[in-house]
Design a protein that fits this description.
By secondary structure, the chain is α+β, with helices and mostly antiparallel strands. The chain contains two helices and three strands; from the N terminus they run αβαββ. Helix content is 29%, strand content 35%.
């Protein structure tokens, strides 16, 4: 599904997407840190003391799937 979403966004003319991840969710957070097309931008502390990390992902090329 992620590849399809990326292909649709590239077709619409986007080259990057922005999203946020809860730092408490360590598996998702570490996965996005290891992705070479994703970079952390900023850490935000929410009023209930949770921490969110804002990420930017580069999607500059289409992924061909069959």
């Amino acid at each position: 599904m992620s590849y399809i979403k990326g292909n649709v966004l590239v077709d619409l003319g986007y080259s990057e997407i922005f999203f946020e991840v809860d730092k408490f969710n360590k598996a998702v957070y570490k996965f996005n840190l290891r992705d070479r097309n994703t970079e952390p931008l900023e850490e935000i502390a929410l009023p209930d003391e949770r921490k969110r990390i804002l990420f930017k992902k580069i999607i500059k090329h289409k992924v061909i799937t069959f």
